[in-house]
Amino acid sequence: MLFSTTMSSIHGTLRRYYLIIEKLKRKAYPSLRELRDFLHEQGFEIAERTLQRDIEQLRVEFDVSVIYDRSQKGYFIEAESMSIADRLLDFAAVPYFSGMLTETLKSGAENLRYLSFERGSEHRGMEHFTPLLDAVSRNTQVQIVHTAFHRDEPKEYTVLPFMLKEYQRRWYLVGYVPERNDFRSFGIDRIETVQRTNIPFSRNDYPDPAVFFNDVIGLTYSTADVAEVELSFHPFQGNYVKALPLHASQVEVADDDKEYRIRLRVRPNFELTQVILGYGDSVKVCKPASLAKEIKERLDSARKNYR
Asked: Topology of 126-213 in CATH?
């Protein structure tokens, strides 16, 4: 079933944005006709004028500049806009896939029997998402009650909220905690209450945590310098690392019948170590030597559990 060109809901618009960015990332310099045909294949029968308006609105509303290259006769995302485009892609994926599921279920709720979802805690605490996002956007302090995994009793914090970050299907509040004179991440599923205030703060008085996250895997703060990390994977495992890169900085170094080797530019931290250990004997740390030594020590320690 084709969607009408008169669909004006935010839900439908975000789904179109998702498809436009997805096509631009998949194919180099698609023409306007190719973009329109792709949307048509996905259920959106729209006029070229509507598509051009969507491209313009991506720039106006989200600072994602989609430029027409006359020599290539096609469109591309401006390099400076790529990180924002990636974030918008992640965000717009939610209404896109939820819309797909809604259309599927219109043919009968029995289709639910054929869908399997991973169960977890990612939905717990999501009632706090909207008030926290509102405080982030308005630059106002919040009072939260949070229970850490290592603590039995809940604790109250005053937080200057800077951003909400997703990692491994869980959402986290990232903010500055005056009591600690440092930034901290709070799992939303571990937050019991959120109290908004009208006390403002200025972001310009603090470092931007988003810049820090550009150089790390996960959420753990690290004072380590950015390092070149080289990992050598078994060729079969390499297929998955190609499809699901470990970090935005991932660069392919070697790909043959002996190994699939990549290079990352990241700050070594707890999550990086956990990711490497998760690949077991399918990966070897080539650089830096300090990280290779740490992984070896952790594996040697794990072996003692099976003696």
From this structure: SH3 type barrels. (2.30.30)
Q: Measure the CA dihedral 127/132/134/138, to 10°.
A: 170
Q: Return the residue matching tokens 């926290």.
A: 132
Q: Does domain 227-306 have CATH number 3.30.70?
A: yes
The pTM of the whole model exceeds 0.85: no
CA nearest to 22, candidates 7, 3, 41, 47: 41
Please name the residues in contact with 254: beta carbons below 8 A apart, sequence gap of 6 or more: 232, 260, 261
Distances (CA, A) of 301 to 113, 141, 281: 43, 43, 15
Is residue 189 a contact partner of residue 170, using CB atoms and an 8 Å limit? yes
Q: CB-hemisphere CA count at 13 Å for 85? A: 21
* Architecture of domain 10-105 in this structure: Orthogonal Bundle (1.10)
Dihedral sign, CA of 133, 134, 135, 137? positive
Binned average pLDDT, 10 residues per bin, the chain of 307 residues: 46 82 88 92 87 92 90 91 81 68 66 67 76 94 91 91 88 93 91 94 92 87 86 94 91 94 94 95 95 95 90
Dist CA 307 CA 305 (whole Å): 6
The arrangement of strands across the sheet holding 227-233 comes to 251-255, 260-266, 227-233, 283-287
7 SS3 class:
coil
